[in-house]
Specification:
This protein is an alpha/beta fold. It is 35% helix and 26% strand. The mean pLDDT is 88.
């Protein structure tokens, strides 16, 4: 990343659909070469935000600049300078790999003298060398997504918007896809990507947590993990997780308890000294094999805590 002017600027963006407020005053910036992740539950406003920044929706109020262009004043100028991948696979299944790429190259206005080199780049990036004439319908999901990414950057945009691009793709393919994203970032492309995968969010330079149309938190993955959970985070291991979590949620001094794989994560009031006393408490409720230890919060812990706090604040308003 550099100290150059930001490629994406959102200033108090609001979007209403009738009485429903999908975005409630979102502000942030994305620097050249930065990979910014937007993480939030379904319906949080991630897709609405991306569509505004791509010039596909007009904000109700606020301002958005993409590549220095006001999105509301010149949406067509913005669309010429960006690459965009929607949630739904957007290539044509009944065309071949190369036919799809030629079609999108034409739409993006790739110069004729540059077309063959750009097509070869996209094919190589997607790992589809030798399958140029294969119908897209026959490709596996991971290959389709990499091909769609290749199509989105045929015109060499400096800004790329990806709306949950790896939904439904296997973990190995998702990892390869993210390697490509970071390669683009290293080349100076600014990337804004929405996701609901916690492991994907870890790959981003910064993460914006969004809930109910509002920005809950913004920072690097390490910074968000260090945000206070409002208590001490403890891990509980035992055989009967169901009984344990039922008992823990009734325990005085326990602020939250949730199953994490084969353990329970507990946010406890530090004043309750549960680091030493929680195993004793559980033994008194018939769970004698419980092991308790303090742990560092994961991104998921921070996400759950921040979203719950945001939801509680919204309900209080």
């Amino acid at each position: 990343m550099t100290t150059a002017s930001p490629q994406i600027v959102a200033q108090a963006l609001v979007k209403r659909f009738g009485a429903f407020e999908a975005l409630g005053g979102v502000s942030f910036e994305v620097a050249p070469g930065e990979v910014m992740g937007f993480l939030g539950p379904n319906g949080a406003g991630k897709s609405t935000l991306i569509r505004i920044l791509c010039g596909l929706l007009r904000p109700s109020s606020g301002r958005a600049l993409v590549a220095g262009i006001d999105v509301a004043k010149d949406p067509e100028g913005v669309r010429k300078r960006i690459g965009y991948m929607s949630q739904k696979f957007s290539l044509y299944n009944d065309l071949s790999v190369i036919e799809n790429l030629r079609f999108f190259g034409g739409i993006y206005g790739v110069p004729r003298q540059d077309m063959e080199a750009r097509l070869r780049f996209a094919v190589d990036m997607a790992g589809l060398a030798g399958q140029e004439d294969s119908l897209v319908a026959t490709l596996a999901g991971g290959w389709k997504q990499r091909l769609a990414l290749g199509a989105a950057i045929l015109h060499r945009p400096t800004i790329l918007f990806l709306d949950e691009p790896t939904s439904g793709v296997d973990p190995q393919s998702r990892r390869r896809f993210w390697n490509l994203i970071h390669t683009l970032g290293a080349e100076g492309v600014s990337v804004l990507v929405s996701t609901h995968y916690m492991d994907e969010a870890e790959y981003c330079n910064r993460i914006a947590l969004i809930n109910r149309g509002r920005l809950v938190a913004l920072g690097t993955p390490a910074e968000l993990k260090q945000r206070s959970l409002g208590g001490e985070l403890l891990e509980v291991r035992c055989r009967n997780l169901g009984a344990a979590i039922e008992a823990l949620r009734r325990a005085p001094g326990v602020r939250d308890a949730a199953v994490f794989g084969s353990t329970v994560h507990v946010v406890a009031d530090p004043a309750a000294n549960y680091r030493a006393g929680l195993a004793h408490y559980l033994a008194g409720h018939g769970i004698a094999d419980a092991g308790v230890r303090p742990i560092a919060p994961t991104l998921e812990d921070s996400f759950v805590s921040l979203v719950q706090a945001s939801s509680s604040a919204a309900e209080a308003r």
